[in-house]
Amino acid sequence: MFRLQVRRRMKPLLLACVAGAAVAASPAAAQQVDSNKLLEIMVRKGLVTREEADAMIAEAGVAPPAAAVRPVPAGGVSADGVQTIPYVPQVVREQLKQELRNELGQQAQAEGWAKPGEVPEWTKRITISGDIRARLDAMMFDRNNYADFVNWGAINEGGGIDVNPASPGFVNLPYLNTRNDRVAMRLRARLGVNARIDDWVTAEVRVATGNDRSPVSTNQTLGQVGEFGKYQLWLDRAAIHLTPMKGFGVELGRFANPFWSSTLIFDEDLNFDGISASAKVKLNERFGVFGTAGFFPLFNTSLNFGSRDVGSFRSRDRYLAAGQFGIDVRPTSALRTRLAGGYFRFENVQGEVSAPCAFNQDVCSTDAMRPLFQQFGNTHMALRNVVPNPSVPQGLSPEVQYFGLASKYEVVSARGEIDYGLTERLSLRLEGDYLRNLAFTRSKVGPLALNNFAPIINGKGGQFAGGDDGWQMRLSVGHLGRGLPQGDQTIHKGDWNANLGYRRIESDAMLDALADSDFGLGGTNMKGWFAGGTYGVAENTAFGIRWMSADEIAGPPLSVDHLMVDFTSRF
Known about the structure:
By secondary structure, this protein is mostly beta strands. It has helices at 2-24, 27-32, 35-44, 50-60, 90-111, 152-157, 442-445, and strands at 76-77, 83-84, 126-141, 161-162, 182-198, 201-208, 220-221, 234-245, 248-256, 271-282, 287-299, 306-307, 311-312, 318-329, 335-347, 356-358, 380-382, 385-387, 400-401, 403-405, 409-421, 426-437, 469-479, 496-505, 526-538, 541-552, 559-570. It has a 16-stranded antiparallel β-barrel with strand order 3-5-6-8-9-10-11-14-15-21-22-23-24-25-26-27. The chain has a two-stranded antiparallel ribbon with strand order 1-2. The protein has a two-stranded antiparallel ribbon with strand order 4-19. The longest helix has 23 residues, at 2-24.
Protein backbone atom coordinates (compact mmCIF):
# COMPACT_ATOMS: atom_id res chain seq x y z
CA MET A 1 0.00 0.00 0.00
CA PHE A 2 2.76 2.44 0.85
CA ARG A 3 4.64 1.53 -2.34
CA LEU A 4 1.62 2.26 -4.49
CA GLN A 5 1.13 5.62 -2.84
CA VAL A 6 4.76 6.53 -3.44
CA ARG A 7 4.41 5.71 -7.09
CA ARG A 8 1.28 7.81 -7.40
CA ARG A 9 3.00 10.77 -5.70
CA MET A 10 6.15 10.55 -7.90
CA LYS A 11 4.28 10.11 -11.19
CA PRO A 12 3.61 13.84 -11.87
CA LEU A 13 7.20 14.68 -11.04
CA LEU A 14 8.59 12.03 -13.38
CA LEU A 15 6.28 13.07 -16.20
CA ALA A 16 7.43 16.66 -15.81
CA CYS A 17 11.08 15.61 -15.97
CA VAL A 18 10.61 13.50 -19.06
CA ALA A 19 8.58 16.21 -20.80
CA GLY A 20 11.25 18.76 -19.99
CA ALA A 21 13.96 16.48 -21.38
CA ALA A 22 11.96 15.84 -24.54
CA VAL A 23 10.95 19.42 -25.25
CA ALA A 24 13.56 21.76 -23.74
CA ALA A 25 16.79 19.77 -24.10
CA SER A 26 19.44 21.25 -26.45
CA PRO A 27 20.55 19.19 -29.50
CA ALA A 28 23.81 18.39 -27.74
CA ALA A 29 21.99 17.15 -24.65
CA ALA A 30 19.48 15.24 -26.78
CA GLN A 31 22.33 13.31 -28.32
CA GLN A 32 23.37 12.18 -24.74
CA VAL A 33 19.84 11.43 -23.25
CA ASP A 34 17.21 9.66 -25.37
CA SER A 35 13.83 10.72 -23.93
CA ASN A 36 11.94 7.97 -25.80
CA LYS A 37 14.05 5.22 -24.14
CA LEU A 38 13.50 6.86 -20.78
CA LEU A 39 9.73 6.71 -21.28
CA GLU A 40 9.94 3.07 -22.35
CA ILE A 41 11.77 2.22 -19.10
CA MET A 42 9.13 4.09 -17.11
CA VAL A 43 6.38 2.14 -18.90
CA ARG A 44 8.06 -1.19 -18.11
CA LYS A 45 8.45 -0.16 -14.46
CA GLY A 46 4.81 0.78 -14.33
CA LEU A 47 5.50 4.40 -13.52
CA VAL A 48 3.42 5.59 -16.54
CA THR A 49 0.94 3.89 -18.76
CA ARG A 50 1.43 3.28 -22.49
CA GLU A 51 -1.27 5.86 -23.29
CA GLU A 52 0.47 8.50 -21.20
CA ALA A 53 3.87 7.84 -22.81
CA ASP A 54 2.44 8.03 -26.36
CA ALA A 55 0.68 11.27 -25.50
CA MET A 56 3.92 12.80 -24.23
CA ILE A 57 5.82 11.74 -27.38
CA ALA A 58 3.11 13.24 -29.62
CA GLU A 59 3.12 16.49 -27.65
CA ALA A 60 6.93 16.75 -27.93
CA GLY A 61 6.76 16.51 -31.81
CA VAL A 62 4.69 19.69 -32.09
CA ALA A 63 6.95 22.81 -32.57
CA PRO A 64 6.28 25.67 -30.20
CA PRO A 65 4.92 28.83 -31.73
CA ALA A 66 7.61 31.24 -32.99
CA ALA A 67 8.24 34.23 -30.85
CA ALA A 68 7.03 37.50 -32.29
CA VAL A 69 9.86 39.40 -34.02
CA ARG A 70 10.01 43.02 -33.14
CA PRO A 71 10.19 45.22 -36.26
CA VAL A 72 13.37 47.17 -36.83
CA PRO A 73 12.59 50.75 -35.88
CA ALA A 74 12.79 53.31 -38.66
CA GLY A 75 15.76 55.58 -38.55
CA GLY A 76 15.43 59.28 -37.98
CA VAL A 77 14.91 61.91 -35.27
CA SER A 78 11.65 61.89 -33.32
CA ALA A 79 9.74 64.93 -32.15
CA ASP A 80 11.35 64.80 -28.72
CA GLY A 81 14.84 64.90 -30.28
CA VAL A 82 15.63 61.21 -29.84
CA GLN A 83 17.70 59.89 -32.78
CA THR A 84 17.04 56.30 -33.82
CA ILE A 85 19.67 54.38 -35.80
CA PRO A 86 18.37 51.00 -37.03
CA TYR A 87 20.67 48.07 -36.54
CA VAL A 88 21.27 45.75 -39.52
CA PRO A 89 22.86 42.44 -38.53
CA GLN A 90 26.24 41.61 -40.10
CA VAL A 91 24.86 38.60 -41.95
CA VAL A 92 22.20 40.78 -43.61
CA ARG A 93 24.79 43.37 -44.58
CA GLU A 94 26.97 40.73 -46.22
CA GLN A 95 23.99 39.37 -48.09
CA LEU A 96 23.08 42.85 -49.37
CA LYS A 97 26.65 43.48 -50.53
CA GLN A 98 26.77 40.18 -52.42
CA GLU A 99 23.43 40.84 -54.11
CA LEU A 100 24.57 44.34 -55.17
CA ARG A 101 27.88 42.95 -56.44
CA ASN A 102 26.11 40.33 -58.56
CA GLU A 103 23.65 42.87 -59.99
CA LEU A 104 26.38 45.37 -60.96
CA GLY A 105 28.48 42.61 -62.52
CA GLN A 106 25.60 41.53 -64.73
CA GLN A 107 24.93 45.14 -65.76
CA ALA A 108 28.62 45.81 -66.52
CA GLN A 109 28.82 42.72 -68.70
CA ALA A 110 25.63 43.63 -70.57
CA GLU A 111 26.67 47.25 -71.15
CA GLY A 112 30.37 46.64 -71.81
CA TRP A 113 31.78 48.46 -68.78
CA ALA A 114 35.54 48.47 -68.38
CA LYS A 115 37.22 45.91 -66.22
CA PRO A 116 39.85 47.09 -63.73
CA GLY A 117 42.91 48.28 -65.69
CA GLU A 118 41.01 48.36 -69.00
CA VAL A 119 39.09 50.97 -71.01
CA PRO A 120 35.59 50.57 -72.46
CA GLU A 121 35.49 48.60 -75.72
CA TRP A 122 34.04 51.46 -77.76
CA THR A 123 37.03 53.68 -76.98
CA LYS A 124 39.31 51.14 -78.67
CA ARG A 125 37.51 51.85 -81.95
CA ILE A 126 38.16 55.61 -81.87
CA THR A 127 41.48 57.36 -82.49
CA ILE A 128 42.23 61.06 -82.24
CA SER A 129 45.02 62.75 -84.20
CA GLY A 130 46.09 66.24 -85.09
CA ASP A 131 48.92 68.66 -85.67
CA ILE A 132 49.92 72.24 -85.01
CA ARG A 133 52.27 74.15 -87.27
CA ALA A 134 53.73 77.59 -86.61
CA ARG A 135 55.19 79.33 -89.68
CA LEU A 136 57.21 82.40 -90.51
CA ASP A 137 56.10 83.32 -94.03
CA ALA A 138 57.96 85.86 -96.16
CA MET A 139 57.13 86.86 -99.76
CA MET A 140 59.72 89.03 -101.47
CA PHE A 141 58.96 90.79 -104.75
CA ASP A 142 61.25 92.20 -107.42
CA ARG A 143 61.04 96.00 -107.56
CA ASN A 144 60.76 95.85 -111.37
CA ASN A 145 57.58 93.77 -111.32
CA TYR A 146 54.61 94.99 -113.34
CA ALA A 147 52.26 96.85 -110.99
CA ASP A 148 48.83 96.42 -112.59
CA PHE A 149 48.00 92.71 -112.31
CA VAL A 150 44.20 92.40 -112.08
CA ASN A 151 42.85 90.51 -109.09
CA TRP A 152 40.21 88.47 -110.93
CA GLY A 153 39.27 86.52 -107.84
CA ALA A 154 38.37 89.63 -105.86
CA ILE A 155 36.00 90.75 -108.65
CA ASN A 156 34.27 87.39 -108.99
CA GLU A 157 33.80 86.98 -105.24
CA GLY A 158 32.17 90.41 -105.04
CA GLY A 159 29.31 91.98 -106.98
CA GLY A 160 31.16 92.40 -110.26
CA ILE A 161 32.79 95.61 -111.46
CA ASP A 162 32.14 98.32 -114.02
CA VAL A 163 34.75 97.96 -116.76
CA ASN A 164 33.76 101.02 -118.84
CA PRO A 165 36.22 103.80 -117.91
CA ALA A 166 33.99 106.38 -119.63
CA SER A 167 30.95 105.71 -117.44
CA PRO A 168 30.20 108.07 -114.53
CA GLY A 169 31.65 106.89 -111.22
CA PHE A 170 34.10 104.44 -112.83
CA VAL A 171 36.62 102.94 -110.39
CA ASN A 172 39.80 101.13 -111.37
CA LEU A 173 39.91 97.35 -111.19
CA PRO A 174 41.46 95.86 -108.04
CA TYR A 175 45.14 94.99 -108.47
CA LEU A 176 47.51 92.57 -106.79
CA ASN A 177 50.46 93.61 -104.66
CA THR A 178 53.52 92.71 -106.72
CA ARG A 179 56.20 95.11 -105.43
CA ASN A 180 55.98 95.38 -101.65
CA ASP A 181 57.38 92.54 -99.53
CA ARG A 182 55.11 90.88 -97.03
CA VAL A 183 56.10 88.99 -93.84
CA ALA A 184 53.55 87.21 -91.67
CA MET A 185 53.31 84.67 -88.88
CA ARG A 186 50.87 81.88 -89.66
CA LEU A 187 49.31 79.04 -87.73
CA ARG A 188 47.79 75.77 -88.85
CA ALA A 189 45.88 73.57 -86.41
CA ARG A 190 44.00 70.39 -87.33
CA LEU A 191 42.11 67.90 -85.17
CA GLY A 192 40.71 64.66 -86.53
CA VAL A 193 38.64 61.77 -85.18
CA ASN A 194 38.65 58.33 -86.81
CA ALA A 195 36.10 55.70 -85.79
CA ARG A 196 36.06 52.02 -86.74
CA ILE A 197 32.38 51.25 -87.16
CA ASP A 198 32.87 47.69 -88.39
CA ASP A 199 35.70 45.55 -89.72
CA TRP A 200 35.25 47.15 -93.16
CA VAL A 201 33.62 50.50 -92.29
CA THR A 202 35.38 53.53 -90.81
CA ALA A 203 34.47 57.19 -90.51
CA GLU A 204 36.60 60.33 -90.34
CA VAL A 205 35.87 63.88 -89.23
CA ARG A 206 38.51 66.63 -89.15
CA VAL A 207 38.38 70.34 -88.47
CA ALA A 208 41.08 72.87 -89.35
CA THR A 209 41.94 76.53 -89.14
CA GLY A 210 42.03 78.83 -92.15
CA ASN A 211 41.88 82.49 -93.19
CA ASP A 212 38.89 81.73 -95.44
CA ARG A 213 37.16 78.89 -97.30
CA SER A 214 40.17 78.33 -99.58
CA PRO A 215 40.43 74.63 -100.54
CA VAL A 216 44.23 74.80 -100.80
CA SER A 217 45.27 76.38 -97.51
CA THR A 218 44.50 75.87 -93.83
CA ASN A 219 46.85 78.68 -92.76
CA GLN A 220 45.57 81.26 -90.30
CA THR A 221 47.46 84.54 -90.38
CA LEU A 222 48.15 85.70 -86.83
CA GLY A 223 46.76 89.14 -86.18
CA GLN A 224 44.49 89.06 -89.22
CA VAL A 225 41.33 89.73 -87.21
CA GLY A 226 43.04 92.35 -85.00
CA GLU A 227 43.74 92.69 -81.29
CA PHE A 228 43.98 88.96 -80.51
CA GLY A 229 40.58 88.18 -82.00
CA LYS A 230 39.52 84.52 -82.18
CA TYR A 231 39.81 82.42 -85.33
CA GLN A 232 37.39 80.24 -87.24
CA LEU A 233 37.38 76.47 -87.59
CA TRP A 234 36.33 74.83 -90.85
CA LEU A 235 35.09 71.33 -91.62
CA ASP A 236 38.18 70.03 -93.40
CA ARG A 237 37.15 66.38 -93.83
CA ALA A 238 34.02 64.29 -93.22
CA ALA A 239 34.08 60.90 -94.89
CA ILE A 240 33.03 57.27 -94.74
CA HIS A 241 35.69 54.74 -95.80
CA LEU A 242 34.64 51.27 -96.98
CA THR A 243 37.00 48.33 -97.48
CA PRO A 244 34.72 45.43 -98.50
CA MET A 245 37.71 43.36 -99.61
CA LYS A 246 41.46 43.38 -99.25
CA GLY A 247 43.15 45.92 -101.52
CA PHE A 248 39.91 47.68 -102.49
CA GLY A 249 38.40 50.77 -100.91
CA VAL A 250 35.59 53.28 -101.45
CA GLU A 251 35.46 56.80 -99.99
CA LEU A 252 32.33 58.93 -99.63
CA GLY A 253 32.02 62.54 -98.51
CA ARG A 254 34.99 64.88 -98.14
CA PHE A 255 38.31 63.08 -97.93
CA ALA A 256 42.05 63.33 -98.64
CA ASN A 257 43.39 63.41 -102.20
CA PRO A 258 42.90 59.81 -103.42
CA PHE A 259 45.40 60.15 -106.29
CA TRP A 260 49.15 59.64 -106.28
CA SER A 261 50.20 63.15 -107.32
CA SER A 262 52.53 66.05 -106.61
CA THR A 263 51.80 69.71 -105.88
CA LEU A 264 52.28 70.45 -109.58
CA ILE A 265 48.68 69.37 -110.11
CA PHE A 266 47.05 69.32 -106.64
CA ASP A 267 48.02 71.35 -103.55
CA GLU A 268 49.06 69.22 -100.55
CA ASP A 269 46.21 70.61 -98.40
CA LEU A 270 43.52 69.89 -101.01
CA ASN A 271 40.66 67.57 -100.02
CA PHE A 272 38.10 66.14 -102.44
CA ASP A 273 34.28 66.19 -102.29
CA GLY A 274 32.43 63.24 -103.82
CA ILE A 275 33.09 59.53 -104.23
CA SER A 276 36.20 57.57 -105.19
CA ALA A 277 37.16 53.91 -105.51
CA SER A 278 40.75 52.68 -105.25
CA ALA A 279 42.34 49.29 -105.74
CA LYS A 280 45.83 47.94 -105.15
CA VAL A 281 46.85 44.45 -106.26
CA LYS A 282 50.18 42.79 -105.57
CA LEU A 283 50.75 40.32 -108.41
CA ASN A 284 53.96 38.92 -106.95
CA GLU A 285 56.81 39.94 -104.66
CA ARG A 286 58.24 42.31 -107.27
CA PHE A 287 55.26 43.69 -109.17
CA GLY A 288 51.95 45.33 -108.33
CA VAL A 289 49.31 47.57 -109.89
CA PHE A 290 47.10 50.30 -108.45
CA GLY A 291 44.34 52.56 -109.63
CA THR A 292 41.77 55.15 -108.58
CA ALA A 293 38.59 56.51 -110.16
CA GLY A 294 36.20 59.11 -108.87
CA PHE A 295 33.47 61.66 -109.42
CA PHE A 296 33.80 65.00 -107.63
CA PRO A 297 31.36 67.97 -107.57
CA LEU A 298 33.13 71.32 -107.92
CA PHE A 299 30.11 73.62 -107.84
CA ASN A 300 26.38 73.10 -107.49
CA THR A 301 24.06 75.78 -108.85
CA SER A 302 21.70 77.38 -106.37
CA LEU A 303 18.19 75.92 -106.60
CA ASN A 304 16.70 79.34 -107.30
CA PHE A 305 19.56 80.72 -109.43
CA GLY A 306 18.08 83.49 -111.54
CA SER A 307 17.25 87.14 -111.88
CA ARG A 308 14.47 89.18 -110.30
CA ASP A 309 13.95 90.67 -113.75
CA VAL A 310 13.83 87.66 -116.11
CA GLY A 311 13.29 84.60 -113.91
CA SER A 312 15.45 81.51 -113.29
CA PHE A 313 18.29 80.18 -115.46
CA ARG A 314 19.38 76.63 -116.28
CA SER A 315 21.78 74.77 -114.02
CA ARG A 316 25.52 75.39 -114.41
CA ASP A 317 26.87 72.60 -112.22
CA ARG A 318 30.59 71.88 -112.43
CA TYR A 319 32.33 68.62 -111.62
CA LEU A 320 35.50 66.58 -112.08
CA ALA A 321 35.58 63.01 -113.39
CA ALA A 322 39.01 61.45 -112.99
CA GLY A 323 40.96 58.22 -113.09
CA GLN A 324 44.53 57.04 -112.57
CA PHE A 325 46.34 53.76 -113.19
CA GLY A 326 49.87 52.83 -112.15
CA ILE A 327 52.42 50.10 -111.63
CA ASP A 328 54.71 49.47 -108.67
CA VAL A 329 57.94 47.57 -109.40
CA ARG A 330 60.52 46.45 -106.80
CA PRO A 331 63.46 44.88 -108.68
CA THR A 332 65.42 44.55 -105.43
CA SER A 333 64.73 45.12 -101.76
CA ALA A 334 66.52 48.49 -101.99
CA LEU A 335 65.05 49.76 -105.28
CA ARG A 336 61.47 50.79 -105.94
CA THR A 337 59.96 52.28 -109.11
CA ARG A 338 56.47 53.63 -109.60
CA LEU A 339 54.81 54.94 -112.75
CA ALA A 340 51.26 56.27 -113.14
CA GLY A 341 49.10 57.99 -115.72
CA GLY A 342 46.00 60.04 -114.95
CA TYR A 343 43.05 61.60 -116.74
CA PHE A 344 41.16 64.56 -115.21
CA ARG A 345 38.13 65.89 -117.05
CA PHE A 346 36.63 69.13 -115.72
CA GLU A 347 33.07 69.75 -116.90
CA ASN A 348 31.44 73.19 -117.28
CA VAL A 349 34.41 75.14 -115.92
CA GLN A 350 34.89 77.14 -119.13
CA GLY A 351 33.19 80.51 -119.21
CA GLU A 352 30.38 81.31 -121.61
CA VAL A 353 29.07 84.62 -122.89
CA SER A 354 25.61 85.31 -121.54
CA ALA A 355 22.39 86.02 -123.36
CA PRO A 356 21.78 89.76 -123.82
CA CYS A 357 21.70 91.25 -120.33
CA ALA A 358 20.42 94.75 -119.45
CA PHE A 359 23.00 97.15 -118.03
CA ASN A 360 21.13 97.24 -114.70
CA GLN A 361 20.07 93.59 -114.52
CA ASP A 362 20.95 92.00 -111.18
CA VAL A 363 21.95 88.59 -112.57
CA CYS A 364 22.85 87.48 -116.09
CA SER A 365 22.40 83.95 -117.45
CA THR A 366 26.06 82.85 -117.19
CA ASP A 367 27.10 84.52 -113.95
CA ALA A 368 27.32 81.07 -112.36
CA MET A 369 30.13 80.20 -114.79
CA ARG A 370 32.59 82.40 -112.93
CA PRO A 371 34.99 80.63 -110.52
CA LEU A 372 34.01 81.21 -106.92
CA PHE A 373 37.55 80.41 -105.86
CA GLN A 374 40.66 80.92 -107.95
CA GLN A 375 44.35 81.64 -107.55
CA PHE A 376 46.43 83.07 -110.36
CA GLY A 377 47.52 82.07 -113.83
CA ASN A 378 44.50 80.90 -115.84
CA THR A 379 43.37 82.91 -118.88
CA HIS A 380 40.18 84.93 -118.32
CA MET A 381 37.28 86.17 -120.47
CA ALA A 382 34.29 88.47 -119.93
CA LEU A 383 31.02 86.66 -119.23
CA ARG A 384 28.27 89.23 -119.65
CA ASN A 385 26.80 90.45 -122.95
CA VAL A 386 25.67 93.80 -121.57
CA VAL A 387 22.97 95.83 -123.34
CA PRO A 388 23.84 99.55 -122.82
CA ASN A 389 21.52 102.08 -121.23
CA PRO A 390 19.69 103.68 -124.16
CA SER A 391 18.99 106.86 -122.19
CA VAL A 392 22.65 107.97 -122.03
CA PRO A 393 25.02 108.92 -124.84
CA GLN A 394 26.71 106.01 -126.60
CA GLY A 395 29.82 104.80 -124.81
CA LEU A 396 28.85 106.21 -121.40
CA SER A 397 26.66 103.35 -120.14
CA PRO A 398 28.11 101.32 -117.26
CA GLU A 399 29.14 97.72 -118.01
CA VAL A 400 29.28 95.59 -114.88
CA GLN A 401 31.19 92.38 -115.57
CA TYR A 402 32.15 89.00 -114.13
CA PHE A 403 35.00 86.95 -115.55
CA GLY A 404 35.30 83.26 -116.35
CA LEU A 405 37.95 80.87 -117.64
CA ALA A 406 38.62 81.12 -121.34
CA SER A 407 39.72 77.50 -121.82
CA LYS A 408 38.26 74.08 -121.24
CA TYR A 409 40.26 71.66 -119.07
CA GLU A 410 40.85 68.03 -119.93
CA VAL A 411 44.15 67.21 -118.28
CA VAL A 412 46.33 64.14 -118.71
CA SER A 413 49.23 63.53 -116.35
CA ALA A 414 52.21 61.24 -115.99
CA ARG A 415 54.14 60.69 -112.79
CA GLY A 416 57.22 58.61 -112.06
CA GLU A 417 59.44 57.91 -109.08
CA ILE A 418 62.65 56.01 -108.42
CA ASP A 419 63.45 55.35 -104.76
CA TYR A 420 66.76 53.77 -103.77
CA GLY A 421 67.28 52.70 -100.17
CA LEU A 422 70.66 53.70 -98.82
CA THR A 423 69.80 52.10 -95.46
CA GLU A 424 66.65 50.62 -93.97
CA ARG A 425 65.07 54.07 -93.55
CA LEU A 426 67.38 56.42 -95.45
CA SER A 427 66.75 56.72 -99.18
CA LEU A 428 67.48 58.71 -102.32
CA ARG A 429 64.45 59.61 -104.44
CA LEU A 430 64.02 61.12 -107.92
CA GLU A 431 60.54 62.25 -108.94
CA GLY A 432 59.17 63.60 -112.19
CA ASP A 433 55.74 64.92 -113.27
CA TYR A 434 54.25 66.00 -116.56
CA LEU A 435 50.77 67.28 -117.40
CA ARG A 436 48.98 68.67 -120.42
CA ASN A 437 45.56 70.20 -121.05
CA LEU A 438 44.18 68.42 -124.12
CA ALA A 439 41.19 70.77 -124.32
CA PHE A 440 43.28 73.94 -124.70
CA THR A 441 42.92 75.43 -128.19
CA ARG A 442 44.98 78.54 -128.79
CA SER A 443 42.90 79.71 -131.74
CA LYS A 444 39.75 79.71 -129.56
CA VAL A 445 41.22 80.96 -126.32
CA GLY A 446 43.29 83.80 -127.78
CA PRO A 447 40.37 85.94 -129.12
CA LEU A 448 38.62 85.71 -125.72
CA ALA A 449 41.68 86.32 -123.52
CA LEU A 450 41.97 89.34 -121.23
CA ASN A 451 45.37 88.40 -119.74
CA ASN A 452 48.52 86.33 -120.37
CA PHE A 453 49.80 88.43 -123.28
CA ALA A 454 53.47 88.72 -124.09
CA PRO A 455 54.95 92.06 -123.02
CA ILE A 456 55.54 94.65 -125.72
CA ILE A 457 59.25 95.38 -126.01
CA ASN A 458 60.55 97.81 -128.68
CA GLY A 459 57.22 97.63 -130.47
CA LYS A 460 57.19 93.83 -130.58
CA GLY A 461 55.07 91.38 -128.65
CA GLY A 462 51.56 91.78 -127.33
CA GLN A 463 50.24 88.48 -128.66
CA PHE A 464 48.48 85.88 -126.51
CA ALA A 465 51.20 83.76 -124.83
CA GLY A 466 49.27 81.31 -122.66
CA GLY A 467 50.16 77.61 -122.73
CA ASP A 468 48.84 74.15 -121.95
CA ASP A 469 51.55 72.01 -120.33
CA GLY A 470 53.68 71.72 -117.22
CA TRP A 471 56.45 69.63 -115.71
CA GLN A 472 58.49 69.23 -112.55
CA MET A 473 61.60 67.36 -111.34
CA ARG A 474 62.68 66.88 -107.74
CA LEU A 475 65.60 65.11 -106.08
CA SER A 476 65.27 64.21 -102.39
CA VAL A 477 67.45 62.44 -99.86
CA GLY A 478 66.81 61.47 -96.25
CA HIS A 479 64.23 59.70 -94.12
CA LEU A 480 61.34 59.83 -96.55
CA GLY A 481 58.96 57.24 -95.11
CA ARG A 482 59.70 54.58 -97.72
CA GLY A 483 56.70 52.39 -98.38
CA LEU A 484 54.25 54.58 -96.47
CA PRO A 485 51.13 55.90 -98.22
CA GLN A 486 50.83 59.44 -99.45
CA GLY A 487 50.10 61.98 -96.71
CA ASP A 488 51.39 62.86 -93.27
CA GLN A 489 54.09 60.52 -91.98
CA THR A 490 55.51 59.73 -88.57
CA ILE A 491 58.49 61.87 -87.52
CA HIS A 492 61.21 60.39 -85.31
CA LYS A 493 63.83 62.37 -83.45
CA GLY A 494 66.90 62.73 -85.66
CA ASP A 495 65.02 62.12 -88.93
CA TRP A 496 65.96 64.49 -91.72
CA ASN A 497 65.47 65.10 -95.41
CA ALA A 498 66.48 67.63 -98.05
CA ASN A 499 65.22 68.30 -101.58
CA LEU A 500 65.93 70.37 -104.66
CA GLY A 501 63.71 70.79 -107.71
CA TYR A 502 62.55 72.81 -110.70
CA ARG A 503 59.01 73.51 -111.91
CA ARG A 504 57.42 74.99 -114.99
CA ILE A 505 53.64 75.14 -115.36
CA GLU A 506 52.02 77.20 -118.12
CA SER A 507 48.90 79.29 -117.72
CA ASP A 508 46.20 76.79 -118.69
CA ALA A 509 47.91 73.46 -118.07
CA MET A 510 45.75 72.98 -114.97
CA LEU A 511 42.93 74.66 -113.09
CA ASP A 512 44.83 77.24 -111.02
CA ALA A 513 42.36 76.95 -108.12
CA LEU A 514 43.63 73.46 -107.24
CA ALA A 515 47.38 73.79 -107.91
CA ASP A 516 50.13 74.56 -105.37
CA SER A 517 49.33 77.62 -103.25
CA ASP A 518 52.95 78.32 -102.19
CA PHE A 519 54.88 78.54 -105.48
CA GLY A 520 54.90 82.16 -106.68
CA LEU A 521 51.52 83.69 -105.95
CA GLY A 522 49.88 80.27 -106.13
CA GLY A 523 48.37 78.56 -109.16
CA THR A 524 49.87 78.35 -112.65
CA ASN A 525 51.86 80.39 -115.20
CA MET A 526 55.09 80.27 -113.15
CA LYS A 527 58.53 78.68 -113.46
CA GLY A 528 61.51 78.42 -111.13
CA TRP A 529 63.54 76.57 -108.51
CA PHE A 530 62.63 75.30 -105.07
CA ALA A 531 64.59 73.70 -102.22
CA GLY A 532 63.98 72.71 -98.63
CA GLY A 533 64.79 70.51 -95.68
CA THR A 534 63.31 69.10 -92.48
CA TYR A 535 64.85 67.84 -89.23
CA GLY A 536 63.13 65.91 -86.44
CA VAL A 537 64.00 67.75 -83.22
CA ALA A 538 61.85 65.42 -81.09
CA GLU A 539 59.39 62.59 -81.52
CA ASN A 540 56.71 63.77 -83.99
CA THR A 541 58.15 67.28 -83.89
CA ALA A 542 60.10 68.82 -86.76
CA PHE A 543 61.78 72.01 -87.86
CA GLY A 544 61.62 72.77 -91.60
CA ILE A 545 62.60 75.42 -94.09
CA ARG A 546 61.63 75.92 -97.77
CA TRP A 547 62.69 78.40 -100.40
CA MET A 548 60.88 78.98 -103.73
CA SER A 549 61.94 81.35 -106.48
CA ALA A 550 59.33 81.82 -109.25
CA ASP A 551 59.01 83.93 -112.41
CA GLU A 552 55.91 84.44 -114.53
CA ILE A 553 55.93 82.71 -117.94
CA ALA A 554 53.26 84.58 -119.96
CA GLY A 555 52.63 88.25 -119.31
CA PRO A 556 54.56 91.25 -118.00
CA PRO A 557 57.49 90.85 -115.57
CA LEU A 558 56.72 89.20 -112.22
CA SER A 559 59.27 87.57 -109.89
CA VAL A 560 58.45 86.26 -106.40
CA ASP A 561 60.71 84.63 -103.81
CA HIS A 562 58.94 82.75 -101.03
CA LEU A 563 60.53 81.69 -97.72
CA MET A 564 58.73 79.44 -95.23
CA VAL A 565 60.16 78.46 -91.84
CA ASP A 566 58.02 75.86 -90.06
CA PHE A 567 57.87 74.25 -86.64
CA THR A 568 55.42 71.33 -86.62
CA SER A 569 54.23 69.00 -83.88
CA ARG A 570 51.90 66.04 -84.43
CA PHE A 571 49.95 63.83 -82.10
